Amino acid sequence: MLFGNIETLEITEIRKRLLILSILVLISMGVLFIRLWQLQISQSEKYRTLSESNRIRVLPVKSPRGYITARNGAPLVENRPEFKLYLIPEEVPDVEELLSRMEGNISVDMELVKERLASSRKFKPVLVKDDLGRNELAFLEEHRPDLPGTFIQVEPVRFYRYGPLAAHLLGYLGEISEKELRNRTRDRYMIGDYTGKSGLEKAYDRELRGLKGRKFMEVDALGRELRPLGNIEPTIGNIVTLTLDLDLQILAEDLLLDERGAILVMDPRDGQILAYVSKPAFDPNLFVSGLRKQDWEELSTDKTHPLQDRVMQGQYPPGSVFKIITAVAALEEEVVNEETTVYCPGHYYFGKRIYRDWKRSGHGVVNLHRALVESCDVYFYQVGEKVGVDTIHKYAKGFGFGKALNIALGRGQPGLIPSTTWKTEVKNEPWFPGETLITAIGQGYVLVTPMQLAIMISAIANGGTLYLPQFVERVENQEGRIIKRFKPQELGTIPATPATLAIIRKALWGVVNEPKGTGKGAKLPWVEVAGKTGTAQVVRYKKWNRKQIGTPKELLDHAWFVSFAPLEEPSIALVILIENAGKGGSRYAHIAKKIIEAYLSKQTKTGVNETSSR
């Protein structure tokens, strides 16, 4: 009986254990079944995608940037093919060992590559070397099996057809920085991409860059390419057509020779920019594949400042060109009229100082017309004294001086138009009456940019309208459909009546066409040209050193010449600046003559008397 009970207990215990074991087996089978259901049915798409990702490499295909063309459609900026070497770090067993294997055969900037690797995203290609040469390509093809995770891609890179021509206007490209990458995530940039850094390349980057494509490539477990699986073609960027006249641009660049300075040519009827020259310049082609450290050091330390855009960023005393503003202020305030005369003996005593005229023997008795034609300083000393600096300041502001200009190229320098309030606030000093005299002839604290003078002389030419400079005529896609056409934009009108403008224009005509005019070098026999010369002192000279003998080049006078033509129906206005010329603008009036002659002759031959946007 005892043994029977023991057997019964053992059987019961075994059954319990079997039941528990069966439950555990069922639970395990259930979990396994659920997991299989998740893998095979619920999440099948996810794991299929992951599987494909292990087998298929998706490579971005960069889109060619759109062309930048002159007004006649001639390409100024286009693209050329370039071979680039990339690697995907996750597909390389030992990146440092791989890079060292390339050394000696491929010129690689190891520090730059390491920086790119440190900031790269997972499974994204990292640029190792661009602009591969023939020998480098041969080495890579020959050793392809030994370089897993690497691939060569042919990409379009920027090509500036005319090198430094209009470089400051066109701008250049550079590799996108980490800061730019964070701020422009919606533009789908990635490390190694190039973006506009200055000029129109920057201003119209979105219009020019296009949309990337994709290339699908089958790879093995080591990341070696096996076969292509298809492509999504990139979309090329839009075409940006400028208002620039290519022939005129080339001519202006050639005429400036090796001088430091600027030439800006504008259509006074609507503000379209016809030529834009700033020298010395740089070759934007240096930047397209990454600027070498040596090249950057040469550019950034060059004492002639080739990277500076003198048209928009250069600030200079305007010299006698500013007499136009003083004359307008005096006429509008009725301080003088056409008949008001002043005797000029070659100097003017004011207080305890003597203010000299550029012409030592003097001009004799002069009225406003002669004072502008012969650029008499003594006349404007006395007129400026009567008008006052604050009134000159008011009229100069009305012409756009002393204000920063916001345009597509960026924010230009504002220059400086002094006033009594300005000096008190900035210098913490009172305004001295003698300072008004030199302000009246565009010296002292007065600073302007060539762009501001171009806007001013265009307004005088067209009857009083200040136009915003226009660089781009239209943007169109590759099929020729116009996406945007740009129209003239007015900034306002100048504070001068038609009667005042008539007096000023007549005097500016005399500067070029009268026997004693300082701008006779711009005279043309078949068209009436108007203009004004200017000499701007960089430093003050003693009486005996007016010829600047022995003066360092960087301290010599600047030379200005502003002009427009034809007198009655102007279609061209221009500004010429020669830095540290050591002589006045009268010596450079011939440059204006050649530019005006070339442009108007071209219009006559083609029967065109209006800009192409009309």
Describe the protein in words:
- With 614 residues, the protein is α+β, with helices and mostly antiparallel strands.
- It folds into 2 domains: 57-242, Alpha-Beta Complex (Penicillin-binding protein 2a (Domain 2)), CATH 3.90.1310.10; 246-283 and 310-606, DD-peptidase/beta-lactamase superfamily (Beta-lactamase, 3-Layer(aba) Sandwich).
- It has 20 helices and 25 strands.
- The strands form 8 sheets. Strands 2, 3, 4, 5, 10, 20 and 21 form a 7-stranded mixed β-sheet that branches. It has a 5-stranded antiparallel β-sheet with strand order 12-11-25-24-23, with helices on both faces.
- Helix 10 (246-256) packs antiparallel against helix 20.
